[in-house]
């Protein structure tokens, strides 16, 4: 049985359509990235999977329980960890009090282990926390009861680069333990390092379901080149060049073609400086599914939890 099974899930707010007939599955022990531009419907889907929103049509089962059946979903919730994008902790209590409260509801058998990896100052009140410390506290509370499934909305927002990498390593180790991870993100480097598969939303619709390597191959690389001669006029003849923008000393573009072909072309020019990097997820998304701007009809309606 899949850990998450979504079938024709629709959430209509009346003024906006949050998600529209979305279907996908997430297998046990899989790290599944849920991607898309802001307003695509990611948070709406997550809140529906948690039973916080009732679907307008369609359904989803999580750990075998139908999200529309409150009674059946009670047990499943005990086996789920959740990290919202907006944490909403009471700023007047300490981190330890936050964890004590969550422990009273769902347990904390891994609390000490997690506090050795993620190190929020639990003795201090939340109002004194940095964004990163608050995020680490949220990660601890999401995993400390050793859930079968963890659902996270932008899990590394606010973490410094070192803690982001520790988080990535931790998530990979959780997969080895059999934990299923489902998270939304717009950080391509994070998705690349940890995900097995990704689902991509656009305007509330699931427009792609890919393994991570396929997504990255389609997304290409961002290339920025400074030359003393005219490289830009040669680019239209190269297959795989899109989104060309010139600047004072050179040109920037997304390249999805054969890298040897690109290098041969660059070798014919006087290159002063070159930078090749992963494009932002927005650029990957737009190249993969069209270069029009996302419509506003799928804008998410969000609230803190």
From TrEMBL:
Molecular function per GO: ATP binding; ATP hydrolysis activity
PROSITE patterns reported for this sequence: ABC_TRANSPORTER_2
Gene3D superfamilies membership: P-loop containing nucleotide triphosphate hydrolases
Pfam families, sorted: ABC_tran, DrrA1-3_C
InterPro entries documented for this protein: AAA+_ATPase, ABC_transporter-like_ATP-bd, ABC_transporter_ATP-binding, DrrA1/2-like_C, P-loop_NTPase
Domain ABC transporter: 4-228
Entry-linked CDD domains: ABC_DR_subfamily_A
UniProt KW keywords: ATP-binding, Nucleotide-binding, Transport
Family: Belongs to the ABC transporter superfamily.
Protein name (record): ABC transporter-like protein
Organism placement in taxonomy: Archaea, Methanobacteriati, Methanobacteriota, Stenosarchaea group, Halobacteria
